[in-house]
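Run folding on both entries below.
>entry_1
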Amino acid sequence: MQQRFNRTLRSYLWILILIAVFVGSVFHFYLIKRFIQPIQSLIEATKELKRGQYPDLVKVHKSDEIGQLAHQYNELVVQLQMNEQQRNRLVTDVSHEIRTPLSNLNGYLQGLKDGDIIGDQALFASLYQESKRLSRMLEQLEQLKEWDHLSNQTIVVKETHEIEPVLRQCVAMFARTLEEKSIPIRLEIESCKVELHIVGIQQVISNLLGNAINYYEGEGPILLVGAKQEKAYHISISGPSQPIPENEKEKVFRRFYRLDSSRNRMTGGSGLGLAISREIIERYHQGEIGVSPKSASNAFWIVLPR
């Protein structure tokens, strides 16, 4: 009887051992697969990236070291894709915008060379202004590329500044131009501390003031207003000019967009200043920028969070 019991007990023990070994093997296989799969996915994705193709993002199921590695790799792929898109957009924009003025310059220069066109002071001045416009466009493209890069960085560095002296300093840079053109300007600026990138804000204000001066038509002063709001600081720059049509308000902030190409050539406009301003305000400062046309003026405004 005792021997029979021992045999039965041994049989059950062997069965339990076999079940434990089987369950352990399955569990071990599952853990190994779960541990190795992200690494294998990273290896395959890296091979695909090496071939010049952007792979699908690696699925992240854990927050351990492997999960963090996969997460960082995904961010790298996204950043590379964004850089590639910006590069393609920049090349397309440049080739599209520069082709026409270069063709014009080449045509006139070829005509002068062949004797088909007689050069005079007005023609040479026009060609000089066109070359200056191209130079300015290239400078602004470089600025736009720089802000594109900065706005896509994960770490944004801003400092707290008193906004009033910043705005007054920007206006002071145009004092001579305003005096030469006999354009009055009025400032209504409230003091306030705002977190901003000082160089970026100076560039935006300079762009808007430059536009207000270049397109000044009529009488009355250019008005710069800085006002504190509950959770923001509002800046407005307005001046007498031809009002922007309602259906063009958003388009003027597009790259290379111009309301009147002949008018922009006369003032040296490239269609990039407002695009740069939007890049700096919206993507780098998380603020807002827009324009409010009136009957005989345009008011460009900025809202900066504080």
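>entry_2
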Amino acid sequence: MTYLLGVAAAIFLGLGFTLQQHAAASAPASDFLRIRLLIDLLHKPIWIVGVLSMIAGQVLSAMALATADVSLVEPLLSANVLFALILARLLYHQPLGLREWSGSLVLSAGVGVFLWAGDPRGGDPDTDSLLRWVLAIGVLLLAQLCVVEARRRGGEVRPMLLAAAAGLLFGVQDGLTRRATAAWHAGIAKIFLHWAPYTLIAIGIVAMLLAQSAFETGRLRTTLPVIAAAEPLAGIAMGVIVFGERVRLDTLPLAGEACGLAAIVAGVVLVGTSQNFRQLEQALLRRRPRLSHRHADLRLTRNHTVD
């Protein structure tokens, strides 16, 4: 059941991210990294559908996290980029070539190798401590570093850094979801007295703003793969550091885990940089009444000039 929930969550997340990027790419450049961006996007029905799809994916992932360790669920969620590609195929009739199939196989193999080699187990959301959460702040600091560097950069580097920051926060959000779920099981009244739900909401809003800013300033093929690669890595780190999940650390299993994670990242990059994503972007641009190719290029040039 955990695997089915994880895959279903990845499907809804892939759909949600694709629709959100479609809407955010036509948002005013002045909304960059401002809460006003989210307010403006609320007037776009397609963005709302994308958010609802993402919420459905997060609910399904929460159900999976309630019954399994974070380090087991996170690799399954990274498959959302594959379903975004399939969406492009269905909506815009773009064929899947060797690069896409290769990336799909590499990603699937990476998930399987990591789960087999690491054999993650033993985590308990009730055994977290303040010290463990302090150690996890390192993930938040890394996300902050990405945002600071994104403000200094222009061109394609800026949205990639923002996407990395968003992916890291989504991974932290997954860890907090598991903690909040444990509080929920302790009683509905107690969940309102626990810190986890409020922190979950705050980080979720920041992660959403970073993701939409990345979608606004960048292309689908340079943002979605980065989010899909960063989120599981951060989520696995949260599972090990905060919840005490254990993975095998003998020489051979450790090598297998490293190969599995490398294959996950490589598969996401192969799929995300495919020609189908380029053709999807062109199809999206043709359907936008207010954003042409020339305007999109001018936006990237303007961001680079400002920096």
